[in-house]
Amino acid sequence: YKHDYNEWNISDALVFPDGIELEGDGAMALDGNWLILERDTNGNLEGEVIIFFQDNGLWLYDTTLVNNGEFPQDFGRAIAIEDDHLFVSAQSFSQETSPGWIIHFQNINGNWQHQENIIVGEYSDGCGSDISYSNGYLMFNCPGWGGNSLAGAVMIYDYLDGEWQEVYYGECPHIGGNFSEYNEGCQDVSIY
User: Fold this and answer.
1) Helices marked H in the chain
2) CA distance 97 to 59
3) Which of 59, 61, 104, 124 yields a CA-CA distance of 20 to 30 A from 186?
4) How far apart, in whole angstroms, are the C-alpha atoms of residue 51 and residue 44?
């Protein structure tokens, strides 16, 4: 959409390969000329990430990153992008102790290549349900971290000595005094 003085008007439409359409409330990220969208595949929670590139004002399909069982389910649950670095979170819902995954891809010579995985927490921690990336720092939430004593945590990682390392850990206190697995604290994260 584009805002023309008093109203919003459709300025362009995304056309997916093979007529694929988005369903539900998938994650989305936008940075410069890149638009990244998550799409649940046939309701099986495997997920895929569809990448578009803007060229001369038109959004063109670039590629689809497909989860062929290499990553946990819910691939694309949250997405963050800056420049040529793309982060996609995933988590399996079939295992009680499944950690959250943040999967790093990098665009190298026009191809999105899997670089490494950051794996943290357990299933109930919900790590990676929201992620943000800016200026080389990766931030993600763990809204269920800490059980009944906390309303979650936020972690910041930096790429140091050839690997992603935690450089900050912050706990989120309960808001309003009521506890639920995903309390009000640490639901959304943003770093800039």
Assistant:
1) none
2) 40
3) 104
4) 20
Express each pLDDT in 55-79 by its tens digit: 887 888 899 998 877 877 788 889 9
Q: Are 163 and 119 in contact (CB under 8 A)?
A: no
For 129, the 3-state DSSP assignment is coil
d(CA 155, CA 167): 8
* CB within 8 Å of 35: residues ≥ 6 apart: 14, 28, 29, 51, 52, 53, 54, 59
Rounded Cα distance between 80 and 103, Å, is: 10
pLDDT, tens digit, 9 for 90 and up, residues 96-133: 556 788 999 999 999 999 999 998 876 567 788 889 99
- φ/ψ of 94, rounded to 5, equals -95, -10
Look at the block and give the residue holding tokens 């890149």: 34
Please indicate, yes or no, whether the overall pTM of this predicted structure exceeds 0.70.
yes
Q: Is 124 helix (H, G, I), strand (E, B) or coil?
A: helix
User: What residue type is assigned to position 161 of the chain?
Assistant: D
Q: Which pLDDT score is estimated for 93? A: 61
Q: Which of 67, 82, 59, 44 is nearest to 114 (CA)?
A: 67
* Residue 51, pLDDT above cutoff 90: yes
Cβ 97 vs Cβ 155: under 8 Å: no
Encoded tokens for 132: 């943000």
